[in-house]
Design a protein that fits this description.
InterPro entries: SAM-dependent_MTases_sf. This protein is of the alpha/beta class. The protein is built from seven helices and seven strands. The radius of gyration is 16 Å and the shape is globular. It starts with 7 loop residues before the first helix and ends with a helix.
Length: 218
C-alpha cells in the first residue's frame, strides 16, 4: 500500500483554494498522509488506511516518501517542474507534510476517520467543502464509471457548498478519462476550472460541483 503525503500548499494550488474557501468544515477524502488537515483548523480527513493505527501509518507514510521519490526519478519526463522548481523542494514539502500529518494524527486522532468512498460515515451537509485528490478519475482504468457516479454522489451528499476533484486524467499516462464528459452530464451544476498547480502532464483542471443545488432542493 502506497500512502502519499501532500502538503497544505500543494492542496491550495491543486484546488485553487482561497481563505474564503476554507471557512467552515472541510473534508479531505481520501487523504492518506496529507498534511492538509493538520494545517486547516476545521478539517476532517478520511482514508481507509487509518484503521491500521498510528504505528503502521507512520511506517507506511515514511515508506511512501521513499517509494514516491523513486517513482518520480524513474519517470521524470511525465512531470512538469515549474511549480516545484526543483526535485529537492518537492521532497522537502512532502517530508514536512508527512511529519505534520503524523504529529496531528497522534495529537488529534478524532479528526482522522477510517472510511472510503462510496460510503462515508458522515451526515448529509456536514461539511461545507469536500476535496478529493488523486483517486477519482486518476484510477478510472480500475474504478469504473458506475463506481465514480456513486462516489461523487456521496461527496455531493455530505457537502453543503461544493465538491472539488483533482486531477481529471489517468495516473501515469496523463490520458483523458473516456467517461468524464458523460458523467458530468448526470451531475448537478459543474464546471472544469484551471488550477495553478502543475506536476503531472495533462493535469491542469479540477472538476467543481455545486453541491448547494441539491442541498437547497432536498
Amino acid at each position: 500500500m502506497l500512502v502519499t503525503s501532500r502538503s497544505a500548499a500543494e492542496y491550495r494550488a491543486m484546488f485553487d483554494l482561497s481563505p474564503a474557501d476554507l471557512t467552515g468544515r472541510v473534508l479531505d477524502c481520501c487523504a492518506g498522509g496529507s498534511g492538509f488537515a493538520a494545517d486547516v483548523p476545521d478539517a476532517i480527513a478520511v482514508d481507509p488506511a487509518y484503521a491500521l493505527g498510528y504505528d503502521e501509518m507512520a511506517r507506511l507514510v515514511r515508506a511512501g516518501l521513499r517509494d514516491g521519490d523513486r517513482m518520480i526519478d524513474a519517470n521524470r519526463d511525465r512531470f512538469e517542474w515549474e511549480w516545484y522548481g526543483t526535485t529537492e523542494r518537492r521532497a522537502a514539502m512532502r517530508l514536512d507534510a508527512a511529519e505534520s500529518f503524523l504529529a496531528d494524527l497522534r495529537a488529534r486522532p478524532g479528526r482522522y476517520v477510517a472510511a472510503s468512498l462510496p460510503d462515508l460515515p458522515l451526515a448529509a451537509d456536514s461539511v461545507e467543502l469536500a476535496l478529493c485528490s488523486h483517486l477519482l478519475f486518476t484510477w478510472a482504468n480500475q474504478l469504473d464509471e458506475q463506481w465514480h457516479h456513486r462516489a461523487i454522489a456521496e461527496l455531493v451528499r455530505v457537502a453543503r457548498r461544493e465538491v472539488r476533484i483533482f486531477p481529471l486524467v489517468l495516473q501515469g499516462s496523463g490520458e483523458p478519462v473516456e467517461f468524464l464528459d458523460r458523467l458530468r452530464s448526470s451531475l448537478p451544476a459543474n464546471e472544469l476550472r484551471e488550477v495553478p498547480y502543475r506536476f503531472q502532464r495533462g493535469a491542469r483542471h479540477m472538476l467543481v460541483i455545486d453541491a448547494g443545488t441539491t442541498s437547497s432542493t432536498a
